TrEMBL record:
One of its GO terms (molecular function) is dioxygenase activity. It comes from the Bacteria. Keywords: Dioxygenase, Lyase, Oxidoreductase. InterPro entries: Glyas_Bleomycin-R_OHBP_Dase. This is Catechol 2,3-dioxygenase-like lactoylglutathione lyase family enzyme. The keyword Transcription does not apply. It comes from Promicromonospora sukumoe.
Length: 314
């Protein structure tokens, strides 16, 4: 490996030469803003993220499907990676601590599922299961109440940087990919009498708690508070079923209860409480084993599969 390796002209080093020779007068006539907009129309921004070892980042991301397009060891270690329009650049910082990282970037895509599937496959190959704690880790695509209900997930890389993959509605369309015309509307402005957007329209307390928990844990990185809110809502719902062995007798629709229990399992794992995670999983398993309508059966089975994927092996 040479000290500087150019693999692709599309991944230029961070510093480039000016496009006007020194001493040459630029044309200052005309509409400066219009010319700037014309240039910006074909521009793209590149996140430059810190890490302790650029080779570690290259090894990690290539295992998830990206390709190294530029690598430099001297004078400053630097690496660039790409997958289509997903471009990530890293520079080394001595003694970088992932726990102290607050760096982040967003990847806007028309569909989050294929990207998550690709990253998840690479992570499973690398670690044997999906990592949901430590560095790296990944969340599942979930509809976000703080993003107009559009799906999103986060991959926190080995350096602690948050790569946030979010669904955006393609230009010229309305609503989300499922045909929800309100999905792109976003939360109501402050001070209006319009109810805030919910990821589960018409949902009850458990659904609203799940919406809040997803924002807290997956967007803001606070799984402990998310767990507290979601567990409280589920505990109150369970109180309505006291004295009965029927796992569906909570008054909460299975379509809301099952995903909430599955997410509680994940939150318990993420907060280092495997015993509580197994307890929530058992409750979900009881729900899935009940006599359910076909639609509810499908929801419960999907939730149970998600729960098993993150549940620690005893």
């Amino acid at each position: 490996m040479t000290e500087t390796e150019h693999v692709s002209a599309s991944a230029a080093a961070p510093d480039t030469a000016p496009d006007t020779a020194p001493g040459t007068d630029r044309d200052t006539s005309g509409d400066i803003a219009a010319r700037a907009r014309a240039v910006a129309a074909t521009a793209f921004m590149v996140p430059m993220l810190p890490c302790a070892d650029v080779d570690e980042m290259a090894d990690f991301w290539t295992s998830l499907g990206l390709t190294v397009t530029y690598r430099q060891r001297r004078p400053n270690p630097y690496v660039a990676l790409e997958l289509g329009g997903i471009v990530l650049h890293y520079y080394e910082m001595p003694e970088w601590d992932p726990e102290q990282s607050h760096s982040t970037c967003a990847v806007a895509v028309p569909d989050t599922e294929p990207v998550h599937d690709l990253f998840a496959a690479g992570l499973r190959e690398r670690f044997g299961r999906l990592p949901v704690t430590g560095f790296p880790r990944i969340t599942r695509p979930r509809r976000r109440a703080n993003n107009a209900g559009l799906s999103g997930f986060s991959l926190i890389d080995p350096a602690g940087n948050w790569v946030r993959v979010t669904h955006v509605v393609p230009s010229g369309t309305s609503g989300d990919a499922d045909g929800d015309p309100d999905a792109a509307a976003g939360p109501a402005p402050a001070g209006t009498d319009v109810a805030p957007w919910s990821a589960t329209p018409g949902g009850g307390p458990v659904a609203r708690a799940l919406d809040t928990a997803v924002v807290l844990a997956d967007s803001q990185g606070d799984p402990a508070q998310a767990r507290k809110i979601l567990a409280g809502a589920l505990r109150r719902a369970a109180g309505t079923a006291a004295g009965t062995a029927d796992p569906t007798a909570t008054g909460v629709p299975v379509a809301e209860l099952a995903p909430a229990l599955a997410y509680l399992v994940e939150l318990c794992v993420r907060t280092g409480d495997p015993e509580a995670a197994r307890s929530a999983h058992e409750r979900l398993a009881d729900l899935a084993a009940a006599d359910l309508a076909p639609a509810d059966r499908n929801v419960a089975d999907v939730a149970l599969t998600e729960s098993r994927a993150v549940l620690p092996v005893p």
